Amino acid sequence: MQKRFVTIWFRHLLTDWLSLRRPALREIPFVFAVKDHGRLVVTAANTLAEEQGLSPGMVAADAKAIIPSLEVINDIPGQDIKLLRALGEWCIRYTPTIALDAPDGLILDVSGCAHLWGGERAYLKEIVTRLRSKGYDVRAAMADTIGTAWAISRFGKLTPIIENNRQAEALLSLPPAALRLQPDVLERLQKLGLRTINSFITMPRSVLRRRFGQGLLQRLDQALGNVEEPVQSLQPLEPYQERLPCLEPIRTAIGIEIAVQRLLEMLCARLQQEGKGLRTAVFKGYRIDGKVVQMEIGTNLASHNTRHLFKLFELKISTLEPALGIELFILEAPKVEDIPPAQEALWAGKPGLEDTAIAELLDRLAGKVGANTIHRYLPDEHYWPERSIKVSSSIREKAVLTWRSDRPRPVQLLARPEQIEVTAPIPDYPPMLFRYKGEVHQVKKADGPERIEREWWLEGGQHRDYYHIEDENGQRYWLFRSGHYNGGGSDQWFIHGFFA
Amino acid sequence: MKVPDTKKDIITQLQKSILLMQGFVPPSAGLADTVGLGAVEAAFPNAVFPAGAIHEFLSAAPEQAAASGGFISGILNALMQRGGACLWISISRTLFPPALKAFGLEPDRIIFIDLKREKDVLWAMEEALKCPGLAAVIAEVREVSFTESRRLQLAAEQSRVTGFILRSDARKLSATACVARWNITPLPSELESGMPGVGFPRWNVELLKVRNGNPGNWKVEWSAGGFIPIRKDPVKAILPLKSLRAG
């Protein structure tokens, strides 16, 4: 079958995109610029700026000299590819095979598609008008080869549609740059006065190869259709979503359970095949009265275990209100992660935090009482007791530091130190007695002081002098004096913890 | 064979099967099922610390809670020897994880569940006890009823996970289905030859109730990474003063 290609050229891809987001920019000249060797270099200019002679590659300072009111915007690296990809995905309505042509074009393989829009002319017109109405300044062309279509879309002056096998005629009057050649080859052609393709296309191939290299011949062959040009087509991400329409509206909890079960089986089968597991899932029910009810679950570890995920949903089914009935169920997995393939049989009984059974237990707990109730702590690089631990972000996170046990730390630590009355007659000695909650404790044994300085770069305040204290009943406490010993009754003493 | 002997045999046989029905599993041959409590373990049936059962600790005052926390950590140290994780479920937790390192535990292997309602604690504990991957589950509650404790005990027997309940409301001590009721109180520590300073933690370990065992009272000290029973005679009698001077 005869191949047909369309290439779309976005003449001002980035600037058009920004003008769409910030309509105020439509009226003023602006450029994108990126830092390069200590100066700003223009990477893209909008139509107004181009009209006044600005072009990519200029230094921003020079551009400002030409247009004093020029707006210079920092370039966002990778934005053009992202944008092209989004536009390519949008274009999938016209053909299933689309390739990106960085930095500013799209290649559409439209073989056998055009008749659906009533012919090639109508088809091309549809694409161009739709994109132009969105606000993108585009040019498109259609031909048998990518090379010719590319050339016509950039340099063509007559018709954008090249008939079958008429590539050579269409190309003759175009400049060599239309062949997508390397800059140094173009420069050599320019020097030799070969200003159109017509002027060198008839030369013997061996001469062309010797003077300009294989690249020129290959591009020429690609444009003429003598060799195939491979393209890498865009693979749109298929969302992890399953649908279950119902013949009759579902109103019972059992019905919903069955729906959850079926959808999970479908989704998990796909996840399992791709070696992935879901971290979050949303179950939506579309009611006949037009409202949508939904429930959400999250897991600590990516999972494609139907039974486990069902248990998580089961806890929440009672929160769904079917009202008059639900006619469509949708299960989505917005967050999906890779699962390392596990050797289930060998590792099933593995103890410790790696055990999937524990992760599943935590999921169940989180599902009922909320994920913010589950904490796991790792040591942190602080001496200040309140900051010496940090909450670990995941169950798999390993401790980088080792837990310190060189200084005594109490088993019970009060969330906030409580002020106590103390008799401490000798400076920097532990107190003789203290009163806590109305009870007087005679100090029999004591260790300390252990001075812990406040981290001044985090917060201001007094240091603490900690004492490990045992009273006459053998009960052990962690007391501290805030700041230095002043004598008299002005010292501030606190109780901060209880030792085992 | 003589008749009384057979009778005795029958009785011991029956006792053993009753114990089995109550969830006391005799130790399997290969595993060293000791938690290092020494003489205290003899109070239990088969002279083995019953793992896979619910133990109840009285902890009214924070001092007692701290002592119980330390004592439990010592037991957990043995239970988690073969790698494993445990869950600590509570409402208003004051436990300070770094302190557990002193009892040989890796505090990052403990997952804390901080809940808002008392009812959720028991639910979470039962859910956790059904998960055989855990080494132990510790829950701080104010009060636990007989029915609730029975549910927990059955779940623990099924999964062989050890459960610890810290009861903070000591005023009404209802009967429970737990295998043991402990009361841990701190004792004054002692350093060798009366040196100044605070020594290793010492506790008075009281077993108020033991199902099919003998309640009792022991004094233990946590030092050198294990429980050490405190001898009645003073320490300095064993270590002559001369050797200390030489050191």
Order of strands across the biggest sheet of chain B? 3-2-4-5-1-6-7-8-9
- What is the strand tally of chain A? 19
Q: Shape of chain B from CA axes?
A: globular
Terminus-to-terminus distance of chain B: 63 Å
Which regions of chain B contain 5 or more consecutive residues with pLDDT less than 50? 234-247
Order of helices and strands of chain B: HEHEEHEHEEEEEH
Instruction: Return Rg of chain A in Å.
Output: 36 Å
> Biggest β-sheet of chain A: count, sense, barrel?
6 strands, antiparallel, barrel
Please state the average pLDDT score of chain B. 82
Please give the count of helices of chain B.
Answer: 5
Structural class of chain A: alpha+beta
Topology, number of strands of chain B: 9
**Relative strand content of chain B:** 15-25%
Fraction of residues in helix of chain A: 25-40%
The largest interface is: A-B, 54 and 57 residues
The oligomeric state of the chains shown is heterodimer
Name the poorly predicted regions of chain A.
Answer: 344-349
Estimate the mean pLDDT confidence of chain A.
86
Sketch the major β-sheet of chain B. Answer: 9 strands, mixed
Helix content of chain B: 25-40%
What form of chain A results from the Cα inertia axes?
elongated
